[in-house]
Design brief:
By secondary structure, the chain is an alpha+beta fold. About 35% of the residues lie in helices and about 20% in strands. It folds into five domains: about 5-60, Helix hairpin bin (Helix Hairpins, Orthogonal Bundle), CATH 1.10.287; about 75-320, DNA ligase/mRNA capping enzyme (D-amino Acid Aminotransferase, Chain A, domain 1); about 325-410, Beta Barrel (OB fold (Dihydrolipoamide Acetyltransferase, E2P)); about 440-585, DNA polymerase, domain 1 (Orthogonal Bundle); about 605-670, 3-Layer(aba) Sandwich (Rossmann fold), CATH 3.40.50. A hairpin with a 7-residue loop joins strand 17 and strand 18. The protein binds 2-(butylsulfanyl)adenosine (IVH).
Length: about 675
C-alpha cells in the first residue's frame, strides 16, 4: 500500500477503533466483538510499523483504556492495576520465557503459576482490619470508580475476612487488598436473557458486558437481583514480602474466605504450561463462566517485581490467548455456489484470515436477501465469525472503512454451472434455485452427500474423488458408484491398488443401509437426519414411503406441509424414479425398520445455546435414543426448548411467543435419566 492510501486507511481505522473503545469502556456498550476490534487494531499496528512516521500520540495503539464515569467517586489505586501482554501460540510463549530468563541472573530456576483467564470485569476489594471498606473498578488502572455499594451485594465477596489458618491470620490486621474478576455465569446469563425475551426487552450481548454494566448501575438493588460472582486472583499487602508466591496468595485468599480458581497449577517448564493450555482449551467450555485463555505468572513475587513493567503490563506475566472466534478481513469477490437441491448460495471469497485457529477463505452469505440486508459489498472489510466446527459466517461489513471502490453484488439470472435460468419455487422464498436436476454441481454434491458421514458413510468418497469419478465419466448418477470396478478406479490418477480396492469394497459394504440413512442420503430437500428417522419409523419401507400421499404424510408427527410436498414432488419426478430403479438394479436394498418407542416418544426438543455437559449432537442422540425427536428450530409442535449458555435471541423469542415449555440443562438431564 502506498503512503497516501495507508494514511487514509490509518485514520479510518483509528476512528472506528476509538468509537469501539468509547462505547465499550465508557458506555458499557459493544458495537463489535473484542476479537473483531483486536483484528482492526492489529491491522493498524501493522500499517504503523510499516510507516512509523504516521504514528501520532492519540493513536489507539498508543493509549491506556478507560475513563471513570462521573457518577461514581474516583479513587486512586494503591498500586496500578496492570494489563497483560498476550501470547497467541507456543512459539510466542517460548520467546516470553527466553526474554525474561535473559533478564534474570544466570541459573535462576523459574516456576510458573497458571490460572484460567476469566472473561469478566476486574475489581479491587480493600479490607481494613478484615472489614470490606472499598470496592474499586479497574478504570484506567491508576484511578478507578467506587462501586462498594454494588459489590457488597455479591454473595461471593466476604464483607469480613475469615480468620483462616495461622499463615493467613496477619492479613486480618491492617490493609489487605484483593483483586479479582467479577463474572456472570453462562447459565445465569442465559436465564436473564430468557426472561428479557419473555418481557420483550432487548437482549444482552454477552456475560462480560452484562457483568460490567451491572456493576456500574447506580441503583444497587438491581445489582443484587442479578447473580454475579467474584473470583480472586491477587492479594496485596503494604509489605509485599508477606506474599512470597502466587501459590501462597491463592491459598491465603481461600483461607480468607474468597473464591480463587481451583484449576490452577504450579509448573516448572514451558512443556507443562502447554499441556495445561491444551487441556483447558476444550475443557473450558464446560466451566460455568467464560474464559478466553490462561494467565501465566512467575510464581515467585520477588522475581516478578524485579522483572518490572513495560508500558502498562508486567514482564513477569502473560495472557496465553486461545484463538479468537472473530476477525476482520476483506471480501475479494462474491460468487454463487449451487447446492445439492439446486439452491444458489452467494459465497464470499475472503482474503485469508485465521479465525478460531484455522484459515478462513470463504464464508457463506446464505442468500441474496441476506447480502442486501447486511449490505455486504465486494471490497468491504467485514467481520467474520467461526466457532468450533461451524461454517464461517460474515457478521457485518464495516461501513465506515469504505473508500468508494466497493461494488454491490448482483445475483445472476442464470446458473453459473449449467446456464439454466434460476427460479424461485415460491414467490416469497429467499432462495433462488437451479431447477436442472442434471446440473453438474448438483450431481456432484448429491453423490458427496450420499457418501457423507451422516448418510451412508462411505470412506474414500470425498469431494475430490467424486469429482475425479465424474470427470472420467465413470459415474453420472449416485447409483453408478455401485457398478464401479477396481480396474476402472485404478485407471484414475488418484488411485493405486490398495486405495482402489478399499474404495470399491467400502461402496459394496453399503448395499443394505438402514432406511433412515439411505433416505437421508437421497438428499431430498427438507429431509434432515431427524425427519428421515421419523419417516422411516412411520412407513418402515421405501416403497411405502414412495406411495404416500400428502395426506398420509401429514399423519406423521413432526411432518409439515412443506416436507410432505417436497417428498411427493421428489418421488413424482421421473429422473428420481430412474435413480431408485438403478439402485434396485445394482442390488441396493435399504433395511426395513422395526418400530421404536421410548419414554420420550412423541416429545420434541430444541436446544439453544451451548450445553455444559454434552454437545448438541450428543444431546440429539440421547433424545432420539429414548424415542424423542430433536428439531433444529422452534415450531408449534415443539414440546421443549432446552436453554443452554450464550443463547441468541430468535429461538427464545419464538418459544416465548408460542408458549413452548423451557427447560434448563439440569431439567433435560433429569428427563434423559429416566
Ligand atoms: S492476574 C499483573 N489472573 O485479565 C496482572 N488476571 O488482561 C495481574 N484476568 O487485569 C493479573 N483472569 O482483569 C490475572 N486468573 C487471572 C485473570 C486475570 C482474568 C484479567 C484481569 C487482568 C486482565 C489482563
Amino acid at each position: 500500500m502506498n503512503k497516501n492510501k495507508a494514511q487514509e486507511r490509518i485514520s479510518k481505522l483509528r476512528e472506528l477503533i476509538n468509537d469501539y473503545r468509547y462505547h465499550y469502556h465508557v458506555l458499557d456498550e459493544s458495537i463489535m466483538s473484542e476479537a473483531a476490534a483486536d483484528s482492526l487494531k492489529h491491522e493498524l499496528t501493522q500499517l504503523e510499523t510499516e510507516y512509523p512516521d504516521l504514528i501520532t500520540p492519540d493513536s489507539p495503539t498508543q493509549r491506556v483504556a478507560g475513563t471513570p464515569l462521573a457518577a461514581f467517586k474516583a479513587i486512586p489505586h494503591s498500586r496500578r492495576m496492570l494489563s497483560l501482554n498476550d501470547v497467541f501460540d507456543d512459539k510466542e510463549l517460548d520467546s516470553w520465557v527466553a526474554r525474561i530468563t535473559k533478564l534474570l541472573p544466570a541459573g535462576t530456576s523459574l516456576e510458573y503459576f497458571t490460572d484460567l483467564k476469566m472473561d469478566g470485569f476486574a475489581c479491587a476489594l480493600v479490607y481494613q482490619d478484615g472489614m470490606l471498606t472499598q470496592a474499586i473498578t479497574r478504570g484506567d488502572g491508576i484511578v478507578g470508580e467506587d462501586v462498594t455499594a454494588n459489590v457488597r451485594t455479591i454473595d461471593s465477596v466476604p464483607l469480613r475476612l475469615r480468620e483462616g489458618n495461622k499463615d493467613s491470620h496477619k492479613f486480618l490486621a491492617g490493609r489487605t487488598e484483593v483483586r479479582g474478576e467479577i463474572v456472570m455465569y453462562k447459565a445465569d446469563f442465559a436465564r436473564l436473557n430468557q426472561q428479557r425475551a419473555q418481557q420483550g426487552l432487548p437482549l444482552f450481548a454477552n456475560p462480560r458486558n452484562t457483568a460490567a454494566g451491572t456493576i456500574r448501575q447506580l441503583d444497587s438493588r438491581l445489582v443484587s437481583e442479578r447473580k454475579l460472582h467474584f473470583r480472586a486472583y491477587d492479594l496485596l499487602r503494604d509489605d509485599s514480602t508477606e506474599v512470597p508466591t502466587n501459590a501462597f496468595a491463592y491459598q491465603t485468599l481461600r483461607e480468607l474466605g474468597l473464591l480463587a480458581n481451583p484449576q490452577v497449577t504450579t509448573v516448572k517448564s514451558v512443556k507443562e504450561i502447554i499441556k495445561f493450555a491444551r487441556v483447558w482449551e476444550t475443557k473450558r467450555h464446560d466451566l460455568p463462566f467464560n474464559t478466553d485463555g490462561l494467565v501465566i505468572k512467575i510464581n515467585d513475587r520477588n522475581l516478578f517485581e524485579r522483572l518490572g513493567i513495560v508500558g502498562k503490563a508486567p514482564r513477569g506475566a502473560v495472557a496465553y490467548k486461545y484463538p479468537a472466534e472473530q476477525a476482520t478481513t476483506k471480501v475479494k469477490d462474491i460468487f454463487v455456489s449451487i447446492g445439492r437441491t439446486g439452491s444458489a448460495t452467494p459465497v464470499a471469497m475472503l482474503e485469508p484470515v485465521v479465525v478460531a485457529g484455522s484459515t478462513v477463505q470463504m464464508a457463506t452469505l446464505h442468500n441474496e436477501g441476506e447480502v442486501m440486508r447486511k449490505d455486504i459489498r465486494i471490497g468491504d472489510t467485514v467481520i467474520v465469525h467461526k466457532a468450533g466446527d461451524i461454517i464461517p459466517e460474515v457478521i457485518e461489513p464495516l461501513v465506515k472503512l469504505r473508500d468508494g471502490s466497493e461494488r454491490e453484488f448482483v445475483m445472476p439470472a442464470e446458473c453459473p454451472e449449467c446456464g439454466t435460468k434460476l427460479i424461485k419455487l415460491k414467490a416469497d422464498e429467499a432462495v433462488w434455485r437451479c431447477p436442472n436436476n442434471q446440473c453438474p454441481s448438483r450431481v456432484w454434491k448429491r453423490i458427496q452427500h450420499y457418501a457423507s458421514k451422516a448418510a451412508l458413510d462411505i470412506e474414500g468418497l470425498g469431494e475430490k474423488n467424486v469429482i475425479a469419478l465424474l470427470n472420467a465419466g465413470l459415474v453420472t448418477e449416485t447409483p453408478d458408484i455401485y457398478a464401479l470396478t477396481k480396474e476402472q478406479v485404478l485407471g484414475l490418477d488418484r488411485f493405486a491398488e490398495i486405495s482402489a480396492t478399499k474404495l470399491v469394497s467400502a461402496i459394496q459394504s453399503k448395499k443394505n443401509p438402514p432406511l433412515p440413512k439411505f433416505l437421508y442420503g437421497l438428499g431430498i430437500r427438507h429431509i434432515g437426519v431427524q425427519t428421515a428417522i421419523d419417516l422411516s419409523a412411520h412407513f418402515r419401507s421405501l416403497d411405502a414411503l414412495g406411495r404416500a400421499t400428502i395426506d398420509d404424510l401429514s399423519q406423521v408427527e413432526g411432518i409439515g406441509e412443506v416436507v410432505a410436498e417436497a417428498l411427493v414432488e421428489w418421488f413424482a419426478e421421473p429422473g428420481n424414479q430412474r435413480i431408485l430403479d438403478l439402485f434396485a438394479r445394482y442390488g441396493v436394498k435399504p433395511q426395513e425398520v422395526k418400530k421404536v418407542g421410548g419414554p420420550l416418544s412423541g416429545k420434541s426438543f430444541v436446544v439453544t445455546g451451548s450445553l455444559e455437559t454434552m454437545s448438541r449432537d450428543q444431546a440429539a442422540e440421547k433424545i432420539r435414543a429414548l424415542g424423542g425427536t430433536f428439531q433444529s428450530s422452534v415450531g408449534k409442535d415443539t414440546n421443549y426448548l432446552v436453554v443452554g449458555a450464550n443463547v441468541g435471541a430468535s429461538k427464545l423469542t419464538k418459544a416465548a411467543k408460542l408458549g413452548t415449555k423451557q427447560l434448563t440443562e439440569q431439567e433435560l438431564l433429569k428427563l434423559l435419566d429416566k
